[in-house]
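Internal tracking record. Fields below are filled automatically when a chain is submitted to the structure queue. Please do not edit lines marked as system-generated. If the sequence contains nonstandard residues, flag them in the REMARKS field before resubmitting.
Queue: standard
Priority: normal
Entity type: single polypeptide chain
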Amino acid sequence: MTPTATRPAPVTPRHVLLVEDDPADVFLVRELLAEVDPDLVVSVAESVADVTSGGLLGRCDCVLLDLNLPGTDGLEGLRQILRADDTAAVCVLTGLDDEYLGTAAVAAGAQDYLVKGKVDGQVLIRAVRYAVERRRAEGSLMRLREEQMAAAESARLERGLLPSPLLAGSPVRARNYYRAGRTRSLIGGDFFDAVLGANGTVHAIIGDVCGHGPDEAALGALLRVSWRALVLAGVEESQVLPKLQQVLVSERHDRSLFTTVCTVAITVGPSGASEALVRLAGHPPPVSLLPEPTAAAAPVGLPLGILPEGEWEPATVSLDKGWALLLHTDGLIEGRGPVPGQPLWEEGLLDVLAEERNTDLEALPARLVERAVGFNGGPLVDDVAILLLSADASPTDAAQTVAVHA
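SYSTEM-GENERATED OUTPUT FOLLOWS
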C-alpha cells in the first residue's frame, strides 16, 4: 500500500489589515468577519500611505484593500503595497460597477477580488484564507525553484572545480574527496586536478581561493581549467605558477583576493621509485604516507595574487616504491584538534595518518574528514578538498577517482 503524503495544515489567518476610508464599509466588514471568526483581529488603515510607512504589513496575514481610496488611482495602491512587501497576501474590494478592475488587480498580483454588496461573512473569510494559502504555496514554490537553481549552479561549479583527473596511461592513481563547510550549501572555492604530461610526468594541483561564494568558486574553476591548459600545452613547470598568477590577477573581481596553491610534478622511475617536485604558494605541504607520514619539507612562498613578481622555490621529495602522496586544503586541519583549545594543524594530521596507517587508500580521505569532524565536535567550518595520489594503479585504473562527497 502506497503511503499517503502528509499535507501541511492549512493556515488560519489571525490578523487582517483592512485598508478602507469609509466608516460604514469598515463597520460592515468587521461585522461580517466577526460573525464567522470572532477571534480574528481586524486592523484598519485609512490610506495606502499609512500601510507602507507604518510597517503594518509585517503584522498581518492578509490585506483587504479598497481600490477606490483617495490619493490612489486604480491599481496604484495595490502596486505600492506589493512594492513594499512582494510576499503580502492581498484581496481587493471593488464596487459593483468596476469588476473589471478586480480582474486587472489579480493580474497585477492580488490573490483575489471581492465585490462590495455581493459578499457575506463566509465568502469573505474564505477569500482571506485562500489568499493566505495561495501566497504560502507561491512562496514554497519560489523557494523550491531557488533551491533547484542553487543545486544546478553547484553542479556546474563542481564540474569546473572537481574534475576527473587525466591520468590514463600513467602508473599513478588519483582519489579525490570534497566536502562543503557548514556555512554554505553551495560548493566553495577549493579546487584540484591531476594530468599526465606529454613527457610522462604526472602534474597535480590543489588550491583554495580566499573568501566564500559563487564568485570565488567560479574563479577557482577558472584557475583549475587554466592550470590544466598550461600543463597540457607543455609550458615549462617553473613558469606554470607565474602564469597562473597572471590569470588570477586579470580575472579576480576583488583586488584583495588571493589563492593558496600546492603543485607537484611526479616523475615515476622504472623501478617504481619516484620523485616529486613540490611548489607551495601559501598552502599546506603534501604528505608522503610511506614509510611513515611525513610532510614535504618545501619552502612556502606567498599565495598567488599578493605580489606581482612572486617566486615559488621547488623542493624535491623522494617517493619510495609503492608511494602515496596526500594533498589537502586547510579546511581539513583548521578545525579543533584532540588537544583542547588547539586546531588540528599539520602535526595533528600526521598523528592521525599514523593511526590510520592500516586504512585502505580508497577509504582514507573520507576517514580523515570523519576524524576531523569528530575532533571539531561538529561539521567543519571551511570546505575540505583532498587529492590522494599513489603508485598502485594499472593504466586502466589511473583515470578512476573516488566520487566527490558534499
